[in-house]
Design goal:
single chain; 244 residues; alpha+beta; Immunoglobulin-like; 2 domains; 14-stranded antiparallel sheet; 14 strands; 40% strand; elongated
């Protein structure tokens, strides 16, 4: 029996021939002489490592500022100051003379002004207060300086300044209007108080800066020509508008 001859084929190679490798993988490009090589990234990693303490410091400062802001807001909500309240409780006219020409008004008046501090934890300190009387938006008395005033928390204080004494030039319309109002028996006057104030938190020693204050009180009085003395307030007590 003739022996069968077996032909052994070489094993198939899994890699493509050299020609196919060259087709899929192009040869490396040559670097242009003008192109600079990429820098090492080590300096960047070192930068982030050295900047971590500064980032922690910024975080601590931010948290501290937030805490301080929250504390200040809480104190403001608890101790926030409210504007004082002013009213005119009484009025007296001791003299009132009108001349034309020249158009002048000479008068002496006294008003009882009651100021109330509505704050329960904050006191008010007034400084450089001045008062005068106006008629038809024109001053008819010189400005009188009032003494400094300390207004304790949640309390009321009454002052009775005497205003006037010297003749004040005014317009002819003001003179004619005042003479007509006297004949009718009703005169509308405006008491103005200007100055500065600041608030102080009792028990903590915290003081605010100075703020300008402007108080205007429109008073309707019953006044006949030639009458001297205390005059009735037709809108008693006359509330005042306070601007700070």
């Amino acid at each position: 029996m003739a022996e069968e001859q077996h032909h052994h084929l070489p094993p198939e190679s899994s890699s493509p021939p050299p020609q196919q490798q060259n087709q899929h993988h192009p040869p490396p490009r040559k670097m242009s002489p003008d192109r600079k090589p990429r820098k090492n990234m080590a300096p960047y990693s070192g930068y982030y490592q050295t900047s971590s303490p500064y980032r922690a410091l910024c975080t601590c400062l931010t948290i501290l500022l937030l805490i301080l802001g929250a504390t200040a807001l809480t104190l403001w909500l608890v101790y926030r100051p409210h504007k004082p309240q002013f009213t005119v409780a009484a009025a007296a006219i001791y003299s009132l003379n009108v001349t034309s020409p020249p158009s002048q008004i000479s008068t002496t008046m006294q008003f009882t002004i009651v100021t109330r501090n509505p704050n329960r934890r904050v006191s008010i300190r007034y400084d450089r207060l001045q008062a005068f009387v106006a008629y038809h938006n024109q001053a008819i008395t010189p400005q009188v300086t009032l003494p400094p005033l300390v207004h304790r928390r949640h309390s009321s204080v009454a002052v009775s300044p005497v205003l006037g004494g010297a003749a004040v030039p005014v317009s002819a319309e003001a003179v004619n209007g005042l003479m007509m109002d006297q004949a009718y028996g009703v005169v509308r006057l405006r008491v103005v108080v200007v100055g500065r104030l600041r608030w102080k938190v009792e028990g903590m020693g915290i003081k605010t800066g100075h703020y300008g204050i402007y108080v205007k009180c429109d008073v309707l009085v019953g006044l006949k020509k030639g009458f001297v003395g205390q005059v009735p307030l037709l809108d008693s007590p006359a509330a005042c508008k306070v601007d700070i």
